[in-house]
Amino acid sequence: MKRRNFLYSMAAGAGLLIPVGHGVWAASAGSGATEAATKNKLIVIMLRGAVDGLNVVAPYGDANYARLRPNIALARPGQTDGAIDLDGYFGLHPALADMQELWQQKKLAFVHASGSPDFTRSHFDAQDYLESGTPGRKGTADGWMNRLLGVLPGNTTPTRAVSVGAVMPRILSGSIAASNIASGAAGTKANVLDRPKVGAAFEQMYKENDKYAKTFSDAQEAHQEMMGASMEKEQQVANGGAPLPNGFPDDSTRIATLMRNDPKIQMVFMALGGWDTHANQGAGKGQLANRLSPLGLGLANLAKRLGPMFDDTTIVVMSEFGRTAKQNGNGGTDHGHGNVMWVMGGKVAGGKVYGDWRGLGSDQLYEGRDVPVTTDFRSVLAQVCERHMGLSDNQLIKVFPEQTYDKSNFNLFQNKA
């Protein structure tokens, strides 16, 4: 196969994704989404590996909590490394202290006992269902965020939806254009294609095929847009020319800068790993705490750095499933079922733990071991799409086609979009 045809095949097989730089891919798109059409923003953070929701938002008011977790339960509020009291029954992990101000401002809410109705305990399958939005069905061709792009008003641009990570994720895969940038400073740095001679050579190679020529042009435009948006003066001064270290707090700063500088960016997705705590999980301190601390710092930083834009932004944090109510013999927890979703934003009716919480009594646990799923994750996402993104019932059906879940019986938002 000729080199040119091979490159064409790669692009076609990747859904017309064209490489535009170090860790950056983009797809072809139509023209101009207006600022009005992209005013309401959505950021989704996925915690791959199944975070332990029972220690993120701990039901310290249930006596069974400490009984089931003699070594890893959070201490009660006021004690050393104790939970941060939320409502007299639930407490926030102390490593998430940076989130306390958002809770007090009623801009952060949690939905406990939420998750996928599918019974799988496979990370791969559960993550797939969370991203496709069709639990139990593996044949779904696209992700729910890609379908959401397809029903939003206005035309799309390559940067209307952006993923931060190594590859384009399942959740944004589909027929609608989306961009992918690497995490860390490398994602918005200049690359070999920015050299005039190299860029011109690629343009020459693609020019014989109108479809790929347009895709490459759009991809280059997306990359230049990302570079331009990231080169804010305050960052250049602070960095002194050195790249930022890896980590979510730094990536959250970069995400906020990109969104502030480019109003066409409406949706952002990022996945974070390291939550599969089968052993040595710890309580107020330890392995889980070490993961939660930068997560909380990054989320608080994101809210702050977005500035006034945070008023029109909703941030959802979700994980594929929860973990067992009872600790295991290795001081950790195993794959469970129900978990906790986080919803934060300027118009979120926060300061509450929502959901149908039934306690940790043995008669209330799913299969006698896990928090049950009493709120389908799609009902939370559907409310975000409806009340924040302004979707109609007909549009919601296109985003979440399997109407086998009930809409939430609680309102996560102060006002409808």
Automatic annotation (TrEMBL):
Entry superkingdom: Bacteria
Entry keyword annotation includes Transferase: no
Keywords noted in UniProt: Signal
InterPro entries per the UniProt record, alphabetical: DUF1501
Signal peptide residue numbers: 1-26
PANTHER family attached to this UniProt entry: BLL7424 PROTEIN (PTHR43737), DUF1501 DOMAIN-CONTAINING PROTEIN (PTHR43737:SF1)
Name of the protein in its database record: DUF1501 domain-containing protein
Species name: Undibacterium hunanense
